[in-house]
Design a protein that fits this description.
Layout: H1 3-17, H2 22-41, H3 53-66, H4 69-88, H5 115-123, H6 132-145, H7 149-153, E1 160-161, E2 166-170, E3 176-180, H8 183-195, H9 221-234, H10 243-256, H11 261-268, H12 273-276, H13 278-282, H14 285-294
Antiparallel strand pairs: 1-2, 2-3
Helix pairs in contact: 1-2, 2-4, 6-8, 6-10
Amino acid sequence: MNWNQAIQDYSHYLNIERGLSSNTIDSYVLDVNKLILFLENNSISCSPITIKNDVIQQFIYEVAKKSTARSQARIISGLKSFFNYLIFEKYRESNPTDLIEAPKIGRKLPDTLSESEINQLITAVDLSKPEGERNKAILETLYSCGLRVSEIITLKISDLFFDEGFIKVVGKGSKERFVPIHFRAQKYIESYMNHYRNHISIVKDYEDILFLNRRGKSLTRQMVFVIMKNLAIKINLDKKISPHTFRHSFATHLLKNGADLRSIQQMLGHESITTTEVYVHLDTSYLKKVVEKYHPRKS
């Protein structure tokens, strides 16, 4: 088995059996391609089946010279996944990354916005422009539901259950979840559909996609980033923001106002509660409230 064939088979596995998104698959494959480039540059001849631990060690040593500890840890994790796949398919008996220790990295706390900053950004949307209604509806939905950018751009009209107050979201691994949607977000979505979406020519196969560009196709991830970046500049917000900043803010504000972690986990679509627990570190007052409310000696 050569490297190209191994990567192709690995990509199919990640897509079909693990149900990962194309962006996630690209990230996994990129880690393996970096290893392949290292082998070529150093005239090292070995296949995915024959490569040994010492070669991987050399590669990681070179990576360490040019990247952060977080990047090194991600590459090691990506390679470990690749070789575990080869073991799973019985191409190898051992993983050459098993003896390689990833650098210790601290937990990176997500960036958040205050409620005031969220309101300023949404208020800054220019409703005199044709796409203004759409942009406002996007921001309100991101903040109301804590969606990922991939989830907002693929959201369908048929996924809206406004009478029940929910939307259906297709998240990572094509897993579906129902998320409550605030009446304000509902109002802006309906306004966008009536005043903007109904007046554009929609390309075939995009009829059910909720948020469209002026050419009648779905928005790109980059376009949502640009919308938010321009609004941040407009209000002189000295923070780097992204759609994920709205997602983090959604979770943090819910926690701050008394929501429990399990509920937040369900709404965010986190597979593990440990992923959601990062928000406790953003607002340590939450821990104090828990003790004051539930400890037997609270009074």
